[in-house]
């Protein structure tokens, strides 16, 4: 992660952020519905050609002004950050399911969420890579919530049973910690119980350690996803 991107700061007020969220949240939901419809629509091919022309016109309208690269994480002076482009939780990312993750300072994280057709691997089942994506994020949240943020060094998943598309829950917690390393564990729970279990090692990266050593940061903040 480039340090410059990681420490992108902003001065927007709570009111300005809330006003933007009130518009872009529903907009992203609409694009998410479009992704789902792209997979499941049974309209005839002429209808699809006509829809494509409309979508291309909308894309042209939106790309008249845009930032270079990804959204990054925008931090505020109180240490909170918004990761609106994030692939799992991003308010502006229609690829994100999205998850709304609750955290506890003891180092726990959980989310109830739904995965539909865009996340399919085997028929009717969630893609294994998507399960890994979600567990990476939720375990990372648990580490961060416990005041021990880090980049994923390793992530091991045990797929215990198939995960059906539909309503699911993810849970994670800090298992143990040693210096700059934090081990978190977690699981996905489906209608018939746990479907996948994970263990991840999260490491406070060298660039962050150097910032702390230089006194530019008091500790392993900011709070990335609050
Ligand atoms: C103040 C700001 C805080 C910043 C906090 C950033 C948080 C950011 C958001 C979190 C978000 C979470 C939810 C999404 C999580 C992703 O999706 S993160 C994306 C996927 N992961 C990556 O891209 C990580 C890529 N790798 C790296 O950036 C670096 O290799 C790492 C993992 C940060 C380590 O780099 P480093 O700090 O330079 O490591 P280094 O000093 O060489 O080694 C330190 C120790 O770690 C061990 N180690 C290094 N790499 C590994 C590894 N891959 N496996 C096992 N051990 C390793 C070394 O052996 C060494 O151990 P000791 O000899 O001290 O016992």
UniProtKB/TrEMBL annotation:
Stored InterPro entries: HotDog_dom_sf, THEM4/THEM5_acyl-CoA_thioest, Thioestr_dom
Locations listed in the record: Cell projection, Ruffle membrane; Cytoplasm; Membrane
SUPFAM superfamilies named among the record's database cross-references: Thioesterase/thiol ester dehydrase-isomerase
Membrane topology according to the record: Peripheral membrane protein
Matching Pfam families: 4HBT (PF03061)
Reaction(s) this enzyme catalyzes, per UniProt: dodecanoyl-CoA + H2O = dodecanoate + CoA + H(+); tetradecanoyl-CoA + H2O = tetradecanoate + CoA + H(+); (5Z,8Z,11Z,14Z)-eicosatetraenoyl-CoA + H2O = (5Z,8Z,11Z,14Z)-eicosatetraenoate + CoA + H(+); (9Z)-octadecenoyl-CoA + H2O = (9Z)-octadecenoate + CoA + H(+)
Keywords: Apoptosis, Cell membrane, Cell projection, Cytoplasm, Fatty acid metabolism, Hydrolase, Lipid metabolism, Membrane, Transit peptide
Sequence similarity: Belongs to the THEM4/THEM5 thioesterase family.
Protein name: Acyl-coenzyme A thioesterase THEM4
Annotated source species: Nocardioides panacisoli
């Amino acid at each position: 992660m480039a340090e410059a991107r990681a420490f992108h700061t902003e001065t927007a007020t709570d009111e300005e952020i809330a006003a933007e969220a009130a518009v872009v949240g529903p907009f992203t939901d609409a694009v998410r519905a479009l992704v789902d419809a792209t997979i499941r629509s049974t309209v005839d091919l002429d209808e699809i050609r006509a829809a494509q022309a409309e979508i291309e016109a909308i894309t042209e309208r939106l790309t008249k002004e845009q930032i270079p690269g990804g959204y990054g994480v925008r931090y505020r002076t109180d240490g909170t950050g918004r990761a609106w482009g994030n692939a799992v939780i991003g308010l502006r990312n229609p690829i994100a399911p999205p998850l709304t993750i609750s955290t506890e300072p003891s180092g726990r994280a959980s989310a109830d969420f739904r995965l539909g057709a865009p996340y399919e691997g085997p028929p009717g089942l969630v893609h294994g890579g998507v399960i890994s994506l979600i567990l990476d994020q939720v375990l990372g949240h648990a580490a961060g919530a416990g005041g021990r943020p880090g980049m994923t060094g390793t992530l091991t998943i045990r797929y215990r049973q198939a995960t059906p598309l539909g309503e699911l829950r993810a849970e994670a917690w800090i298992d143990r910690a040693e210096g700059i390393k934090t081990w978190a564990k977690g699981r996905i729970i489906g209608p018939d119980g746990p479907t996948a279990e994970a263990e991840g090692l999260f490491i406070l990266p060298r660039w962050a350690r150097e910032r702390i050593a230089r006194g530019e940061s008091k500790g392993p903040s900011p709070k990335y996803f609050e």
